[in-house]
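Quick start: read one record
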Amino acid sequence: QVQLAESGGGMVQAGASLRLSCAASGRTSTRYAWAWFRQAPGKEREAVAAVAWSGSSTYYADSVKARFTISRDDAMHTLYLQMNALKPEDTAVYYCAAVAVVSSMINNAYTKDYNYPYWGQGTQVTVSS
């Protein structure tokens, strides 16, 4: 089992950048696929970005393409989300998520929240206009 803890959220103006971090602890030697989700008030949780365990496959929601970048530091057991050119519509609680991958042949960047059994507590991002 792995425990996840996000950090890096805050209040910024439109056009600013933020980098979210997700520190993993526990069974970090297992192969995992990762994702960032967000949930705005009154809206469903949505996948923002995802990466396969190998890093060779990634997913970005259309609304964040060319602005957000998902990355990992495997040595530090940390997942990142670099967010540039932030917009007010990016305001949400951001969550990182992980799922253990049982086979190296499975190289998916999963985008559904039910794919992920492990979740962080979330970090608030607020973007003002």
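Residues 28 and 75 are 10 Å apart (CA to CA).
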